[in-house]
Backbone:
């Protein structure tokens, strides 16, 4: 990323990490966060997914939460995800599931975390659904990949994960996942990472992003390409057309509340489009990462605040 964007991102994430700022934001900023959040509860989120499905847009449903402080909290998230899986099956929504390992206890107890995630994946398998284990910041990368490999070894193959193009290790991780027949969502990466583990220059990130996308497309491996960057979206469309790659060989993924008209347009053009739909009370960390992605997101929220 350029210096100005990098400085903006670093500054906003630093401010957002201040406990006083967080407490004020949680108290007064929920209405503004609603731009990116599909509601407080599962019922709200399922209604939003129905509206998306009616436009030809698929969904992945995420109950917000991460970095729990007490292990008993993880059981609550596990149970909510099981209700979530049942809700999708009951309403026949065209949606799969996304969850974060730390909300299942990864930072506190790896054994309990695995048991919680396994319970959700097993329930999803019963209903014919698919679970995406989100990738968090780099200290959890290897542990997350280990969970995925273990689930597949136990026959729970209805689960995949996310790899972030800004990490140096990702190119090799992509090869390992391909060999293990594990489906991926490919992203640039949205966490604050040091130069020791991640590319700091936007051009390097984009080059690596294209490289791992191309690796999938060239070998006929279905993949999810998660980006709002027109440089990536337009490149994928052109590359697929030039190499006669069918539109159902991949999908674009975008976030709820961002570029919704463009999501509908891509779907109308015959591309597979999936919207990442988060809901729940623990919205603050997710919300601040969305604002930090680019200044335009912050200006949009400020405009809504004063309009």
Residues:
């Amino acid at each position: 990323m350029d210096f100005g964007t990098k400085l903006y991102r670093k500054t906003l994430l630093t401010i957002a990490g201040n406990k006083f700022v967080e407490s004020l934001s949680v108290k007064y900023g929920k209405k503004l966060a609603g731009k990116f959040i599909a509601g407080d509860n599962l019922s709200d989120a399922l209604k939003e997914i129905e509206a998306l499905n009616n436009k030809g847009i698929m969904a992945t449903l995420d109950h917000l939460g991460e970095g729990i402080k007490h292990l008993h909290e993880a059981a609550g998230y596990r149970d909510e995800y099981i209700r979530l899986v049942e809700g999708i099956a009951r309403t026949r929504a065209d949606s799969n599931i996304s969850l974060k390992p730390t909300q299942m206890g990864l930072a506190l107890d790896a054994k309990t975390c695995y048991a919680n995630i396994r319970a959700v994946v097993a329930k999803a398998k019963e209903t014919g659904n698919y679970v995406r284990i989100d990738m968090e910041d780099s200290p959890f990368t290897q542990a997350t990949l280990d969970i995925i490999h273990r689930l597949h070894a136990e026959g729970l193959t209805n689960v995949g994960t996310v790899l972030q193009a800004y990490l140096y290790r990702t190119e090799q991780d992509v090869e390992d996942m391909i060999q293990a027949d594990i489906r991926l969502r490919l992203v640039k990466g949205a966490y604050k990472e040091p130069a020791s583990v991640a590319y700091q220059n936007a051009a390097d990130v984009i080059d690596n992003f294209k490289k791992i996308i191309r690796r999938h497309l060239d070998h006929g491996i279905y993949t999810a390409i998660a980006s709002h960057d027109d440089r990536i979206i337009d490149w994928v469309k052109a590359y697929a057309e030039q190499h006669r790659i069918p539109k159902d060989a991949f999908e674009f993924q975008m976030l709820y509340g961002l570029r919704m008209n463009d999501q509908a347009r891509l779907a109308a053009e015959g591309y597979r489009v999936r919207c990442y739909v988060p809901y729940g009370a623990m919205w603050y960390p997710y919300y601040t990462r969305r604002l930090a992605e680019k200044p335009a997101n912050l200006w949009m929220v400020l405009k809504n605040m004063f309009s």
